[in-house]
Amino acid sequence: MSNDIKDLKQPAKAGQKQLDSIHVFAPATVANVVCGFDVLGFAVNEPGDEVIMRVTDKPGITISKITGDDGRLPLNPAKNTVSVSVEHYLRSIDRLDIGLDIELHKKMPIGSGLGSSSASTVAGLFAIKTLLGDDTDPSTLLPFAMKGEEMACGHGHADNVAPALLGGFVLIRSYEPLDVVRLPHPAGLWCAIVFPDVDVPTREARQIIRKNIQMKDAVTQWGNIAGLVSGLFMQDIDLIGRSMKDVLVEPVRSMLIPDFYLMREMAMEMGAVSFGISGSGPSVFAFTRDEETAKRITQKLQQHLTNIKIGSNGYVSTINDAGPRVLG
Ligand code: HSE
Asked: What broad class describes the main subcellular location of this protein (predicted)?
């Protein structure tokens, strides 16, 4: 760690540059990556959420504006995941004396399976960290971001917040103690994402999955996780593709997604390397070897959803290695 956290316990000293406002973007993420329930995730370039944070005179946190949420998110700072995780962070560094106002601009659908709450929380935490000049490793923010996840869906999993915060492809090797490993990935991997506009809250999508699993299924699953991680290291896209199979969660959750298996067939026929549920759904994603194939798959799946009278959003991206960034 390059900075002693004690330094942050004091307001900026005279002559020390203290920012008084900041505008931050944090990316959407694809959690699970098919076979790695709760342990694998990666960040994408778009969509993502934005936070504008301003230092105010009065101690405490206010939320003055939320856009893009259709009025679904609370402005009450005690109930909003962004302000609650920022407050946890401020408490940890003994800086509850500070006054902050937050604007949250949602640029992706809520409950989409794209790590919507994680992107907002990470944007907020990255904003306050940067405002205070905290140059500790961004991974120190993970426990605070996980608090936000716990509040959003009842469980503090890290497979959205970790890639949103660190960028790239991330493995949560262990939760207790928290051990997060950044994985390499082939540069030419593209991702097609389609969000079918049906409601699948993560909290509920977690409740329907089986609590106990058969040894035979466990063997299949850990073989696939090891295969996927090996494929990432070896830059072997075929190995990545044949490893992205899930015998534990997908068979149950796919029932919540309209025409999931038909969309998979379409994507694979069009040259996808793999296809699966993004996070807890309803978004689905496919890896491809090039941008053109990713675009064609996105268009085809969206057209299919239109035909069955379901609205959708589509995104095409490479893996985002940068994570959150300051926009101004
Ligand atoms: N691993 C989590 C789940 C991700 O599948 O419930 C939620 O986006």
From this structure: cytoplasm
